Structures are given as C-alpha cells and as structure tokens.
Amino acid sequence: MNTPFRLDDHPRRPQPLTPPPDGYFDRLPTQIMARVQPEARQESAAFGWLRVLSMPLRTALASVVVLGGFTATFLLSQPDAATTPRLAHANLAAVPRTEMVQYLLASDERLSTSDLSELPVADQDLVHDYLQASPAEVQAALDEQPSELNYL
User: Fold this and answer.
1) Is the pTM for the entire model greater than 0.90?
2) Which residues fall within 8 angstroms of residue 48, CB to CB, at 6 or more apart?
3) What pLDDT is stored for residue 41 in this prediction?
4) How far apart are CA 64 and CA 70, in angstroms?
5) What is the mean pLDDT of residues 125-129?
6) If DSSP states are collapsed to H, E and C, what string results for the chain?
C-alpha cells in the first residue's frame, strides 16, 4: 500500500538562493549562439554560380535539365525509322507466296481477324482491288439506303 505523502516531511533548500552574477542574463544569448554556430561549409567551386541565381530561375533550370534528359533518352532509344520499315517489307517480299500459303495452311493455329488487323497495310490503297463498282452502282446502293428527313 502506498504511504501518504506529506510535503512537511521533506526538507527544503536553504534560503536564500544565491543570485546570478551581474549581467548573466544579458550575456547568455550571445554565449548560446556562439556554441551553436554551424561550421563554415566547404562548397565546391563548380556549383557556386548556382547560389547566385534566384529561386524561380533555379527551378526553371532544373525542369529544363530534367525535360532535356527525358527528351534525349526518348530520341536515343528510338530505332532508325528510315531503315526499319524497309527491312521488314524487304524480308516479307523475299518470301515466295506459295511458301506463305503452305505455312498458313500447315499451321495448327487458325488466323483470326484480330491477327489480320495487326498487319501494317495503312500505306497500301486496297480499295481499288476489292471495290470494283461504277459510280452508277454506288449511287444506286446509296439510294436504296433508308434515310430520315431529320438528317437532311
């Protein structure tokens, strides 16, 4: 069980306390600041000019450096666009058509429309090969289509 605490049972410090020396509190802030002063840093001369620039200019310079790095990385990682398509078309053109047909027929995997849609045929004009209609036939096909008066 806790014993009761009585303040009168404990002796006090002797009175009076000694006063501080003269001017102690006037000198105290300077003494503390003298102890806390950071040591002078050794800065490299290479980046000394950077401290002269204002903060917005340093921020702009940093963003230009980062964007320049991304741009250089992007441009250097791109394959040579002039030779790559030519080589792919040249390699495919060198394969005989009969060999291609035999390969596609002998394969267990069937071609789907998604496989064919990935072929690079954007540079070829295939409309004239598959659509052989005269202007009169095209007009007749358009006339047969139902139209609403709202869109005219």
Assistant:
1) no
2) none
3) 64
4) 10
5) 63
6) CCCCCCHHHCCCCCCCCCCCCCCHHHHHHHHHHHHHCCCCCCCCHHHHHHHHCCHHHHHHHHHHHHHHHHHHHHHHHCCCCCCHHHHHHHHHHHCCHHHHHHHHHHCCCCCCHHHHHCCCCCCCCCHHHHCCCCHHHHHHHHHHCCCCHHHC
Residue 146 tokens read as 């139902």
Burial level of 144, CB count in 10 A (0-12/13-18/19+)? exposed
Dist. CA 32–CA 46, nearest whole Å: 34
Query: What are the backbone angles phi and psi of residue 72, rounded to the nearest 5°?
Result: -65, -40
- Residue with tokens 């503390």, as numbered in its chain: 32
Neighbours of 58 (CB within 10 A): 13
Identify the CA nearest to 123 among candidates 83, 77, 85, 80: 85
Domain ranges of the chain: 53-77
Tens of pLDDT along 8-67?
888 887 777 788 889 999 999 999 988 887 766 666 667 778 888 899 999 999 999 999
- Cβ proximity of 111 and 104 under 8 Å: yes
